[in-house]
Amino acid sequence: MTPRAHLLLALSVALAACKTDPKPSPGGEGEGEDDTGTTDSGTTDTGDPDLLECDSLPDPPYTTERLRGFTQSEDFVFDADGHIISIDNSGNLVRHTYEGEKSVIVPRVGEVAGMAMMANGDIVLANVGRGSVDRITADGGVTQLATGIDYPNGITVDSYGYVYVSEHSRGRVRQIDPETGDFTILAEGLTFPNGLSFSPDESTLYVNSFGGGTIHAIERTGATFGETATIGHVDSGPEYDDPCDTMELGDECYLPMVGLGACTVDGCTPNPDEDACASLSAGDPCTTTRGGEPFESTCQDVEGTLVCPRIDAALVDQCADSALWDECDVPSGGWGYCESTWEGMLACLGYTELERDMRNACAEAELGDPCVVDNAAAPYAATCESGSIIGVSGLICAGGPWFAGMYGGLDGLDVDACGNVYVTEYITGLVYRVPPEGGVAEEILSLESQWIPNLHWGSGVGGWSKDLLYVMDRDDDSVHAVDVGIHGRPVVHLPE
Questions:
Q1: Domain extents in the chain
Q2: CATH number for the segment(s) 9-236+407-483
Q3: How far apart are CA 49 and CA 436, in angstroms?
Q4: Lower CB count within 10 Å: N or C terminus of the chain?
Q5: Structure pTM?
Q6: How far apart, in whole angstroms, are the C-alpha atoms of residue 24 and residue 199?
Q7: pLDDT tens digits for 206-261?
Q8: Residue 11 phi/psi, 5° resolution?
């Protein structure tokens, strides 16, 4: 994603030369050998790293300034004309000057998780609501580069023009050719992959995980990507006991922020009721239990197995012909998204209704008190925590093991000119740094926020300094400007 570079003249020349090289095949073999018999890596040369004083970067604490009056965007980019580009609270793609003057680029682009800019100034968006990667041209034209992506999240581009997107709910990373839409899967089996960024020489693609607290590296030689390796890990947050520690085997239990299960030797685990549909067919009425009481439902076919789900049949019916994250009409009123239940089917989760239930569960409680949300689509047990985790005031029932899982929820990722990797931890206001060779994730910054999704270095234009790292703060529509003592990696759309 984006940086803030003083970049050396040698780096500028090398990057320009790289952009004129032939474009390699997506995720394919290397570029072959040059006249000297050495392999052309197809990446930029960062010059002598000693000139950047990479071994003597200043230690924290760092000087921080909060700039107010921007947006609650998940991600943002800086353009070459001095603007910060983001998504406003109405879903519009907008640009702001450093002073805060706003203009709309494209209205109602939808729910966007990641954003990057191509060399020609076109913007690419990871559109969660549509399950697509969208390309926005300078005149506001919108095209879809790829569709059918299961929660597109982090996004970046390389100097060849390829687009890279993390597929959050499928645990993988795609490389997309923006001219043809052809794609290659570069990595699989990741835990909710999120932020993406290249190393300064583009020989390594970094990706972090939301909830797993891990930072991964995918090495590249020429056009060929190799295996995925874990280079860093963030351990934070409190420990919570399993609810079954005080229950009997077979007792019904709540799976935190997921649904109802049963106590087994492995703790509270999913317990789909297959017995209730043993002599029935898909669509037949069935009776299971929920909260110890009889619960009327409808048999559902889940990958060839009939189950009697502990969820209102009307919510399942709303998503019968839909895909994950499609919008749906909640039977009780309002709107929601089709989300996957732990039983393996889609059901309509009404966010307005869920937020109401989360508040009501803690209406007469205190911070840390136990609570239960008996929502029709997402029943769970937890503890009362600050509503700032979802951007609301007061207490909500959103704690327990689920809240603990949000620690290590690594979101934004960017890389400095020396190759150090910076990541944000979404709900804690913490920023970590990992050296390019990997190792312990060092906590370098603690911001007064519980909603920091992304970070990038400035463009050097219009007041946005190349020497400052900017962190988006969704708590109050602000941006933190931080002097960490080093500029960022090169980005393809910004001249040196």
A1: 9-236+407-483, 243-405
A2: 2.120.10.30
A3: 12
A4: C
A5: 0.72
A6: 18
A7: 999 987 789 999 999 988 999 999 999 987 776 667 788 889 998 888 876 567 78
A8: -65, -40
